[in-house]
Amino acid sequence: MGLAGGIDKDGSRATELLAAGFDSVEFGTVAGGIAGHPDGSAAALAARLADWRASASGAAPRIGVGLGRPPGAPPAALADGWLAGLALVTGVADYVSLNLSAAANRPLLAAAQWPLLARAFAAVVAWRAAMAAAGGCSIELAVKLPLGAAGEPLPGVARLAVAAGVDRLTVVRADGATDFARVAALAREIDGQAALVAVGGIRSAADVAAARRAGAAGVQVHRLFVDEGAAGVARLRAGG
């Protein structure tokens, strides 16, 4: 069970959130600056997380960082923005989440933008491979995208990401979703080529169990933690 991104965008609550009982905690979304579009958010978050790691003792949750484009950067700069962010957070994060669920990036989900996305996914996967070949730190790659509502086609971008070689899809369930049928349908479609993590509307242990039955390898919570804090995490772990 993980904490979804958006609650702490700059690492200022790292000590609190990493002690709240999660298996993973996602920070951000942040960006690395690129030519013509400066952005220090990824660098600032990386510095805070590095300080936390230096002072931490014992087992720690996995740390994730959501990555996006710098404000005002055009869609064509997506790959450059992701790569700039990756270079900054690799070494302090266990995984990055390439965030296509944010409002600014949702237009990129249109089929006309799929060639651009395919190139961006390929660039990120190639960068990671080059880092590993050079003996550098490896990092898990996730893509976060909206799952869509009942009756809509499953997100085609999920297939692009899996084909490129990402490790995980974090799928955001539609507001008001009452079942996990779309999670199950996507799990069948990708057939184990990447792990699925479900986020949105996870409020009880029954929801966690339903997500697991649908094929999710894990879940993330957001509103539950906002409303209940660490007590909500403990309740889910206790089967409540």
Structure characteristics:
TIM Barrel, 240 residues, alpha/beta, single chain, 9 helices, 8 strands
Written description of the protein model:
By secondary structure, the chain is of the alpha/beta class. The chain has one domain (2-237): Aldolase class I (TIM Barrel, Alpha-Beta Barrel), CATH 3.20.20.70. The chain is built from 9 helices and 8 strands. It has helices at residues 14-18, 41-55, 78-89, 114-133, 156-164, 181-190, 205-214, 223-228, 230-237; strands spanning 2-3, 24-30, 62-67, 95-99, 140-148, 168-173, 195-199, 218-221. The longest helix has 20 residues, at 114-133. InterPro entries: Aldolase_TIM. This is Dihydroorotate dehydrogenase.
* Stretches with pLDDT under 50, minimum 5 residues: none
Integer count of domains: 1
CATH class: Alpha Beta
Large-scale geometry? globular
CATH superfamily: Aldolase class I
How do the strands line up in the largest sheet?
A: 1-2-3-4-5-6-7-8
Oligomer: single chain
Protein name: Dihydroorotate dehydrogenase
InterPro entries: Aldolase_TIM
